[in-house]
Design goal:
222 residues; 10 helices; DNA binding; DNA-binding; NreC/VraR/RcsB-like_REC; WalR-like
Length: 222
């Protein structure tokens, strides 16, 4: 692949050694190109605006800022740049906050390097990746037996809301879902909000976890 066509990646991590190791791994991939390293939230915002990378790998535990807040700012300012959260933390709240902020992936630093590299490719295509261990923890944290306030036990979804849910489960963002269904992004986001409300979820990932526990998803939502 031509280097100009490779997926550009900005690494945001306060640990120099880790960032260099990840950068070295990226250099060995013909379809991925490391374009920079930011150590702080301030540097991340500056380099993201300057380099306009396709994907940003971000550690949420930065020395000068809340990494999730930085991810949200980047997504607002540069909607074409996808953010993948890569963390050593096991705090469940981080997953929910990251997906609410629009992150395209949430992976553990303890996972396999190949999974990280594939997550970058998946993010660039407009889909979401979540580490299986993180998803398993989220599944365990949801309670399927009782209907959430404002919903019913089976979710009470309309046909269109169910279609949106299936594509959310495939990790697709609002723009891609809207394109698949032939509706506007604004309308799609309205359906997504309705799905979250009926399932009692606060993020796309949590909605998918709850739907999985309740058997609302088809085997292959793609």
């Amino acid at each position: 692949m031509d280097s100009d066509e490779a997926i550009t990646v900005l690494v945001v991590d306060g640990h120099q050694t880790f960032a260099e190791l990840l950068g070295h791994a990226l250099a060995g991939q013909p379809d991925l190109r490391w374009v920079g390293h930011a150590r702080t939230g301030a540097e991340a915002l500056s380099l993201a605006a300057e380099l306009r990378p396709d994907v940003i790998v971000l550690d949420p535990e930065l020395s000068d800022a809340d990494g999730i807040a930085i991810a949200e700012l980047i997504r607002v300012r540069q909607p074409d740049s996808r953010v993948v959260i890569l963390t050593a933390s096991e705090e469940q709240s981080l997953v929910r906050r990251a997906t609410t902020a629009g992150a395209a992936g949430f992976l553990s630093k303890n996972g396999a390097l190949g999974d990280v590299l594939n997550a970058l490719r998946t993010a660039h295509r407009g889909s979401m990746t979540v580490s299986t261990d993180i998803l398993a923890r989220l599944l365990r944290s949801t309670t399927p037996a009782t209907a959430p306030r404002g919903g019913v036990a089976n979710g009470g979804l309309t046909v269109r809301e169910n279609e949106v849910l299936q594509l959310m489960a495939a990790g697709l963002d609002a723009r891609t879902v809207a394109r698949r269904l032939g509706i506007s992004v604004h309308t799609c986001r309205g359906y997504q909000k309705a799905v979250l409300a009926k399932l009692g979820a606060h993020s796309q990932l949590e909605a998918v976890a709850i739907a999985t526990r309740r058997g609302l998803l088809r085997p292959d939502p793609r």
